[in-house]
Amino acid sequence: MTSPLALSPGAAIAVSHFGNEAQPLVCVDQALADVQLVRTIAARHSFQPIGPFYPGLRAVVSEQIAMPLVQPLLPALQQAFALEREPAYFECYLSLVTRAPADLDPIQRLPHFDGVERERIAVLLYLSHDPQGGTAFYRQHGTGFESVDATRFEQYRAELDAATRASGLPPARYIGDDSPLFERVLKVDGQLNRMVAYHGNSLHCAALPEDFVPVADPMQGRLTLNLFLRA
Q1: Are 128 and 221 a contacting pair, CB within 8 Å?
Q2: Are 148 and 216 in contact (CB under 8 A)?
Q3: How far is residue 98's CA from residue 158's CA, in Å, rounded to a whole number?
Q4: Which site in 3, 86, 88, 137 is 20 to 30 Å from 63, CA atoms measured?
Q5: CB distance 109 to 173 below 8 Å
Q6: 15, 26 contact by CB (below 8 A)
Q7: Are 163 and 80 in contact (CB under 8 A)?
Q8: Could you read off the pLDDT of 29-80 as tens digits, one per residue?
Q9: Three-state DSSP class for 13?
């Protein structure tokens, strides 16, 4: 039986680069043959808080279910991200944003990175129509860093601490275009059935409109599938 998450034969794949660091971005439109079926299946999952950083609820997705989405793309991902070997499953979640801007913890008001390893690839599939939102990528003002690896981590953290002391904590909202600490480099629109892949150590964050109101219903709220690969 074919997985509902299998990559559609009609998927349109494009590779581009962004920022001063020319980081690769793989974009796949019309990724699923039947995205509404996947949304319906996703809504049946039990969502719960997982970890202290994500501003919402998540449901774990197994390797067997998740990997058909990217299996045909693994050679292309290896080439696009200059990996020594094809990336493999690391973890995967269905993710639903449920936290209002006013309720965000300070760490949730900033861009983040998933890890310092360049071998970690984030794959994000938009399962709701969110054209005003999407995913944004950032550059740290003080260092110019658009990604953080092990050699940059201490400098990144020191600059973040110094900038926060100088300008104060970010206001209780989802980060927008710019702030005293970061500037936006790129925004990918959250088009339904669009999938993007990028280095997990890039500085990124969910892009949400200023009037965003969270909805806890997976069929109505901001729903994504977040698959993490590691070579």
Answers
A1: yes
A2: no
A3: 31
A4: 137
A5: yes
A6: yes
A7: no
A8: 999 999 999 999 999 999 999 888 899 999 999 999 999 999 999 999 999 9
A9: strand
